[in-house]
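Lab meeting, item 3. Inverse folding demo.
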């Protein structure tokens, strides 16, 4: 029973309408414009659905952790008495930024939205829920908000000693941003140029 949800769920992602209504609302376009896992993979975003209740002994989780070198982990709970400087943190999570390393989150409870910029600089909203593990590549412009359920508990993973520093946009000259653009944005333009011939 414990692992009955394993492998069944898939992530939902969509292009956002960029109205300035409440950030915790879904912000669907009209009609909704969904985004596939393949599209996310093209942007370097990785996703697994795992057993959140027994993750410590979950073989798939441990394999991912080992193969990707995720030696560090801690828990983050987004609620006023568990997250120091709650209001301030939530605000900074939603400022568009990059990191010099991957952002790796495994949702153990609740849900939330990771927004990432696509290759045309449009916002894609990724709805993560219990059991979803997501990796945002170093250098991708992104942000996070809770949804209207207002509850998120996640495992944060990292390779070695964690560095959580956000670099707010614009960071177009940052070496990590340049590396990301070269690997995931320009390669895309390259393949279209080839297709056109
Ligand atoms: C789902 S974890 C909360 C958000 C966060 O840790 C971050 O944006 O860095
Ligand atoms: Fe981040």
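The presenter then showed the designed sequence:
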């Amino acid at each position: 029973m414990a692992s009955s949800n394993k492998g069944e769920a898939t992530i939902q992602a969509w292009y956002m309408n960029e109205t300035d209504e409440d950030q915790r609302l879904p912000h669907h376009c009209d009609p909704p414009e969904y985004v596939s896992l393949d599209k996310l993979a093209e942007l370097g975003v990785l996703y697994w659905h795992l057993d959140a209740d027994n993750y410590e002994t979950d073989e798939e989780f441990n394999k991912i952790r080992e193969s990707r070198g995720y030696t560090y982990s801690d828990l983050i709970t987004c609620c006023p008495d568990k997250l120091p400087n709650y209001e301030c943190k939530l605000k900074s999570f939603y400022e568009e930024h990059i990191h010099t390393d991957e952002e790796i989150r495994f949702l153990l409870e609740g849900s939330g939205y990771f927004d990432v910029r696509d290759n045309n600089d449009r916002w894609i909203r990724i709805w993560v829920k219990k059991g979803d593990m997501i990796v945002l590549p170093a250098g991708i412009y992104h942000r996070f908000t809770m949804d209207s359920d207002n509850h998120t508990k996640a495992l944060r993973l990292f390779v070695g000693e964690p560095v959580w520093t956000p670099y707010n946009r614009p960071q177009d000259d940052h070496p990590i941003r340049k590396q990301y653009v070269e690997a995931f944005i320009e390669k895309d333009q390259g393949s279209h140029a080839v297709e056109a011939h």
